[in-house]
Design brief:
Elements lengths: L18 E7 L2 E9 L3 E7 L5 H5 L1 E11 L11 E10 L4 E4 L8 E9 L7 E10 L8 E14 L6 E4 L3 H6 L9 H17 L22 H12 L11 E2 L16 H17 L6 E3 L8 H19 L6 E4 L24 E5 H4 L3 H9 L3 E5 L19 H12 L4 E4 L22 E5 L2 E4 L24 E2 H20 L4 H12 E2 L14 E2 L3 H19 L1
Parallel strand pairs: 1-9, 10-16, 11-12, 12-13, 13-14, 14-15, 15-16
Antiparallel strand pairs: 2-7, 3-6, 3-8, 4-5, 4-7, 5-19, 8-9, 17-18, 20-21
Helix pairs in contact: 5-6, 9-10, 10-11, 10-12, 11-12
C-alpha cells in the first residue's frame, strides 16, 4: 500500500501485485507491505537478480501500532490503534509476527529507498521476496519492485526548519546507569541530528553551551565552536545541520532572574557572531530568544535584543538574522494586537502562528517584498480539524501538505515546538513512554496525541532496539512531512523553466484552495486542502515529467 496510507490492525489485503515508486536524486521514497495472519515467522529479502541500486539503498522498518485512549480534542477521531512508529529491521532476518504487542492480524512493514544524487535516470528493477511462514516453509511471494529515477535532483531541501529537541527526554530514554555524557553523548547527538537532517528538519540548537562570564559576557567561543563543529560543519563525516540558533536563550547565558547589562550582552554576541562567521556558519544562524511577544513591552524587549545582535554581527561584517514568533502589524487590530511597525527594521524572520497567518497576509507579503523571511508554526487547538496537524489520529496527508502549503503561501521556514517531547503530557518533564502512551500534550480541556512527538526512542528493548546510542525511530508522520518538503522542490524546480510557474499554480490548485477574501484583520479562515493521496501523487508526477522534459 502507499506510504501515505494507514494499515490498521484489521485492514484486509488488497490486490496490488507490483511495487512501483519513483524518485529524484537525493530523494527518499517509501512503500508499505503488509502481512496478515496468525503467529508465524516472516522474512523480507531481495532476490539475487535485484539491482544493487535498490538493494544497497533500501531500509526496512516494521510499523508498530499506538493505542490512543484519549482522542485529540475537537478532532472527532476515535479511540483505538493507529499505525505510526517505524522500528528498524534487517532484510534477511527472521521476524515473529504479529506478536504479543500487535492488536490484530495485520502487520505492516515500511520499505524506504534513497536515490543518491547523480544516479543515472531510468528504471531499476528488483524482486522483494516475502516468506510468510519460514518455520513451516509456507507461502513465498515474490513482488516485482520497480524504481524510476528522474533526471533531476537536489543537494538538500530548501525549506528552513527549527524543531525543538528535548535533551532531558533523550537522556530519560536511556538505560539505567548509561551516562549521557562525553563520547556517549557525542554519539547520541550525532545519530539524532543525522536522522533529523535526513528527514529535512533541524534541531533549534545544538546541545552544548559555551562557557560565559556572567559579569562581562565574555565567551569561550572558540572552544565551543570546536565542540559543535562535527554538527555544523559541512565537511565529510560531519552532520552539516543547515539551520542553527545561536545559543542565546531566556535561561542562558543569564537566568531569568538576572538582568545583564546591554554591554555584557553585546560582548557575548560579538564573541559568538564572530566565531559563526569565521567557521562559515553565519548563513545558517539566527537569534531566537523571545517567544510569542504578545505585549508591547515584550516587543520592545525584542527590539533591544535585535539591535544588539545586529550591532554585534556587524563587527564581523554581516547581519545575523533575528527571528521573532510574532506577526507584522502595520496598524492595530484591537486588544493586545497593537501596531508594531517599530520592529520592521529589526526583525529578519517573522515566524507566525498558522492560526493567525491568514489574517496577516497583506502585511506578510509586504515584509517579503522588503526582503524578510516568513516562517510559520502550528499547535493543536480547537481548529485542529481544519488545519494541518502532526497529531497521530489525523490522516497522514496533514503532514505531507505542509510543503505544498508553504510553496503556495511563499513561506520560507517551519518551526515546531516539539520533536521528541517524551515527557509528561502536562509538563513535558519526567518520562512518558511514547510507544505506549501517545498523549503528548494536556492543558485544561485540551488533549493532543503526538503533535510534539514526531520521533520515538531509538533504544527500546521491548521492540528489539538494544543500542543506547542509536538514532531515534521515525514515524509515518515524519516520513510524510519529508515527502511534502521534497515535493516542494518539484514545484520550485518547475518554476525555473518557461511555463513552469503556470504549471506549478495549476498543480497547487489541485491540492489546496483559499476561497476567501484576503485582508489584514482578526479573521480565522484557513485554506482547504485535499485528503486524496492520489491527487498528491498525480500532481507530483505531472511536475516530474515537466521538469524532465525541460532537461531533455
Amino acid at each position: 500500500i502507499p506510504a501515505a496510507a494507514r494499515a490498521f490492525p484489521t485492514t484486509k489485503p488488497g490486490a496490488r501485485q507490483t511495487i512501483r515508486i519513483d524518485a529524484a536524486g537525493n530523494e527518499y521514497q517509501g512503500v508499505q507491505v503488509c502481512v496478515r495472519g496468525g503467529a508465524r515467522k516472516v522474512r523480507f529479502s531481495w532476490t539475487e537478480d535485484s539491482d544493487p541500486l535498490i538493494v544497497d539503498n533500501a531500509e526496512l522498518s516494521r510499523v508498530f501500532y499506538i493505542r490512543i485512549a484519549t482522542p485529540t480534542t475537537a478532532l472527532g477521531s476515535r479511540r483505538g490503534w493507529y499505525p505510526d512508529p517505524l522500528v528498524p529491521r534487517e532484510f534477511g532476518a527472521v521476524q515473529t509476527v504479529p506478536g504479543a504487542v500487535n492488536p490484530g492480524p495485520t502487520t505492516p512493514f515500511y520499505v524506504l529507498v534513497h536515490v543518491p544524487l547523480g544516479t543515472a535516470p531510468g528504471e531499476y528493477r528488483a524482486t522483494l521476496r516475502v516468506e510468510n511462514d519460514v518455520a513451516r516453509e509456507g507461502e513465498v511471494v515474490d513482488i516485482p519492485f520497480v524504481l524510476r529515477v528522474w533526471a533531476f535532483g537536489w543537494e538538500r531541501l530548501s525549506t528552513r526548519t527549527a524543531f525543538s529537541v528535548n535533551q532531558e527526554a533523550m537522556a530519560s530514554s536511556l538505560p539505567a546507569g548509561f551516562k549521557f555524557a562525553g563520547r556517549n553523548k557525542d554519539l547520541i547527538l550525532t545519530n539524532f541530528y543525522t536522522m533529523m537532517k535526513q528527514h529535512g528538519v533541524s534541531p533549534i540548537h545544538v546541545h552544548y553551551m559555551p562557557k560565559v562570564s556572567k559579569s562581562s559576557g565574555k565567551a569561550a567561543a572558540d572552544a565551543w565552536a570546536d565542540r559543535v563543529a562535527p554538527f555544523l560543519d559541512e565537511d565529510e563525516g560531519c552532520v552539516g545541520l543547515p539551520d542553527n540558533r545561536l545559543p542565546l536563550l531566556r535561561y542562558f547565558p543569564w537566568s531569568r532572574s538576572l538582568k545583564p547589562s546591554s554591554a555584557a550582552i553585546l560582548t557575548y554576541l560579538t564573541d559568538m557572531t564572530r566565531v559563526y562567521k569565521e567557521r562559515g556558519w553565519h548563513q545558517k544562524a539566527y537569534i531566537y530568544i523571545l517567544d510569542e511577544t504578545t505585549r508591547r513591552s515584550e516587543e520592545k524587549q525584542a527590539e533591544r535584543y535585535a539591535r544588539l545582535a545586529h550591532k554585534a554581527s556587524a563587527r564581523s561584517g554581516y547581519r545575523i538574522k533575528f527571528l521573532l514568533t510574532d506577526d507584522p502589524r502595520p496598524r492595530s487590530l484591537g486588544g493586545v494586537k497593537t501596531a508594531n511597525k517599530f520592529l520592521y527594521d529589526d526583525v529578519d524572520v517573522w515566524a507566525l502562528r498558522y492560526y493567525y497567518f491568514f489574517g496577516r497576509v497583506p502585511a506578510v507579503r509586504e515584509r517579503k517584498r522588503a526582503g524578510k523571511e516568513i516562517w510559520w508554526y502550528s499547535y493543536t487547538n480547537a481548529s485542529v480539524r481544519k488545519n494541518p496537524s502532526f497529531v497521530i489520529d489525523k490522516p497522514h496527508v496533514d503532514s505531507r501538505v505542509w510543503g505544498w502549503m508553504m510553496e503556495e503561501w511563499n513561506v520560507d521556514g517551519l518551526l515546531n515546538w516539539g520533536f521528541n517531547r517524551w515527557g509528561k503530557a502536562t509538563t513535558g518533564s519526567g518520562w512518558r513512554d511514547p510507544y505506549r502512551d501517545p498523549l503528548s500534550f494536556s492543558r485544561g480541556k485540551l488533549r493532543s496525541n503526538g503533535c510534539t512527538c514526531l520521533a520515538y526512542p531509538g533504544y527500546y528493548p521491548r521492540y528489539g532496539l538494544d543500542d543506547p546510542t542509536a538514532a531515534p525511530c521515525s514515524s509515518l508522520r515524519l516520513e510524510m512531512l519529508r515527502d511534502g518538503l521534497e515535493e516542494r522542490e518539484y514545484l520550485r524546480l518547475a518554476k525555473g523553466y518557461p511555463g513552469g510557474a503556470s504549471l506549478a499554480r495549476q498543480t497547487l490548485a489541485t491540492i489546496t484552495q483559499f476561497p476567501y477574501r484576503i485582508r489584514q484583520a482578526n479573521v480565522f479562515v484557513f485554506p482547504k486542502y485535499t485528503q486524496k493521496r492520489s491527487r498528491f501523487d498525480a500532481a507530483r508526477t505531472t511536475l516530474a515529467r515537466f521538469i524532465e522534459a525541460q532537461q531533455g
